[in-house]
Amino acid sequence: MKYTLDTIPVLDAYKTQCECPLCQMRIHCEDQYIESMLSSAYMEPDYRLKTNETGFCTRHFELMFNRRNRLGLALMTHTHMQEVITSLESILSGGSAAKRGFLSSLRGGGKTEGDSIPQKIRARMDGCFICDQMKGSIERYAYTIAQIYFTNTEFRAMFDNSKGFCLPHLALILEMAEKTLSSAQAEQFTKAVAKLQIENMKRVEGELEWFTLKFDYRNDSKPWGNSKDAPERAINKLMGACVGAEAEMPAHND
Ligand SMILES: [Zn+2]
Ligand SMILES: [Zn+2]
To answer: Distance, CA 160 to ligand 2 centroid (Å)?
Structure first.
């Protein structure tokens, strides 16, 4: 796959000194995709074909539900549901089910596990149009980070003073480096990432420990330092931004 550079959002994210710049870019582009789905994209035939087929995950249904334009969401959900009903009719009654008997096909009747009716229902509901689009954007940002580390001295200084990544994005950035850099550069980049990551995981771990020790009355009068929001930052470091201020979507006047 060929990736293209997208430098400006990467520099902007690194300027904020957050715990994971890729999480911050993920939330920003997630917000934009949700806005665009509900403002005009749902009326465009190309998009609609895809949302009819793929639908959305629970997170993205929920985020769209909490915005204005219930009509746009209702229209997309309606035509998606029509397609799901057609698939379901085929899954529940079509194909080899009649020949093999309903119970037999419910269990996968002699075929591989993926052929059972429950498996087919799960497969039909798999996937999300917004997740699919975001995956491409995040991979482009990860690619950009790995590339401009070697070409942009201003960025390299920011990177070397940054706080590493969450673990899902750590895996992504290392994978991207291995796929797109020369082996010498990949090795150098991986070492720089590893140093940052361990230092910053230990920093957050220490801040989290101090959070727990603050509940001891003997530490009552001692300062919180950076520990007040340590639980949410620790969870976000481990799992990707999902709780607290770092996971908040931009405000909208909905
Ligand atoms: Zn992240
Ligand atoms: Zn999704």
So the answer is: 32
